[in-house]
Amino acid sequence: GESVGLHLPTLSVQEGDNSIINCAYSNSASDYFIWYKQESGKGPQFIIDIRSNMDKRQGQRVTVLLNKTVKHLSLQIAATQPGDSAVYFCAEKRDNQGGKLIFGQGTELSVKP
Amino acid sequence: ETGVTQSPTHLIKTRGQQVTLRCSSQSGHNTVSWYQQALGQGPQFIFQYYREEENGRGNFPPRFSGLQFPNYSSELNVNALELDDSALYLCASISAGGDTQYFGPGTRLTVL
Lengths: 113, 112
Hints:
Chain A is an all-beta fold. Chain A is 0% helix and 54% strand. Chain A has strands at 4-6, 10-14, 19-25, 32-38, 45-51, 56-58, 62-67, 72-77, 86-93, 101-103, 107-112. Chain A is globular. By secondary structure, chain B is mostly beta strands. Chain B contains no helices and eleven strands. Chain B has strands at 5-7, 10-13, 19-24, 29-37, 44-50, 53-57, 64-68, 74-78, 87-95, 101-103, 107-111. In chain B, strands 2, 4, 5, 6, 9, 10 and 11 form a seven-stranded mixed sheet that branches. Chain B has a four-stranded antiparallel sheet with strand order 1-3-8-7, with no helix packed on it. Chains A and B meet through strand 4, strand 5, strand 9 and strand 10 of A and strand 4, strand 5, strand 9 and strand 10 of B.
C-alpha cells in the first residue's frame, strides 16, 4: 500500500546538538522526496528536497540523505536551535501521479535549552 | 512566508451543511493541490488543479469538489459535512514544471 513511515514519533535533543530524523518509504518507484517542518497552528514549511537520482543534498544547517537500497530517507539538522522545535514530515511523490504527495505521520522534535 | 493565502482561518459548521474554502496561490504558480490534515496526522492528498481542471485525485468521495480560476486561485467545496471532516485543510501551490509544493497556513474546519 501507500505509505511513508517514520521510525520515531518523538525526538528530544539538547540545544546545539545535531538532530537526525529518519523516514522509511515503501515504494521504490518514488521519484522525489521532501521534508517539511510544521509548527503548531501553521501550514507545513518547505525545508529541503531531493530527487531519486541523488543520494545527498545540503541546505543551510540541513542535509537530506537518501538510501534507495533500503528505501530510507533522513534529515540532519546541525546545531539544533529552540526554533527548530516542530513536527517534521517526510513526503514522497511519484512523477506518474502528478502532484500527489504522500506524507508520513511526522516526528515531533523537541529542543531542550 | 510562502505567498499562499487561505480563507477563512477558522470555520465552524454543523453536520449536513456545505462549506467553501479558498486559496490564492503564489504568484506565477499555476498548479494548486488540496490536502486534509486530521489532528496528529500527516496531510492527505485530496486533489490537484492545473489550468482550471482537476488532474489528480486522492481517496476522497465526490462530495469533495473543487474549482480553479483563470488567476490560478482555487476553491475546495465540501457538501453534506460529516463530523470526520473536521480537520485542517491545506492548499499548496506549485510553479510550472516544478516539484516543490508551498503550503498556505490552512483553514481549520470544525464540524459539530
